[in-house]
Known about the structure:
about 240 residues; Nucleotidyltransferase, domain 5; 9 helices; globular; alpha/beta; single chain; disordered C terminus; 6-stranded mixed β-sheet; disordered N terminus
Amino acid sequence: MSVETFTLIKQMTFQPTISNEQTAELPSARFGGRIVVIDKEEQITEACRDLAAHKIIGFDTETRPSFKAGVTNKVALLQLSTPSRCYLIRLCRTKLHAAILKILSNSDIKKIGADVAGDIRALHELRNFKERGFIDLQHMASYWGIEEKSLRKMSALVLGQRVSKAQRLSNWEASTLTTQQQMYAATDAWVCIKIYEKLMATQSVMPLPNFEIEAQPQAPKVEKKPYRRFKRTRKPNTTKHNLE
């Protein structure tokens, strides 16, 4: 094998793993576009119009952590990002609007995320919809020889940049999101686009399948039968006293 061929193959592949220490030494990935916080219904239409104009968007959710066993909270934030603008939709302040569901159900718009199935399940707890066009980086990465599954390490291996997780356990239902929370949330969604684009521009080590996640069938609605109240019938008193 020539030096040129070896160099080319090396450029087209990624390391399978990376240590926490190596990851910590890398520069931090930061979203450099505009962050738009949406907490009112009237803001949603314009945001979805912009999102619908893109074929690939980044996708993520955030939930206020629970520190009690058996107690979970509903998803508080939905992040949908284009390469230059990230929308932070505060689902703890506004509903999962029909215009948003149209984006999530559009197979022509690729929604790229990590652990997508978990995020979709959380959104289904708010409202049912037919998810289409979702791609999970955790499933994709193995086709390029990457064994890591966390977004932080996939970013480190593919982009040479680490994703901070400092705000992961912060309060996503707070009255106002801090600047640090906004940057963290926007970067998590945006970096998914960058990883996807870099992978697709690099030769894979295995033939690529269709990465789109199949929509899960919605649970059938169980029709409740009307409650029927039955009259109590008194039993005849057959005590010895009455028989005499």
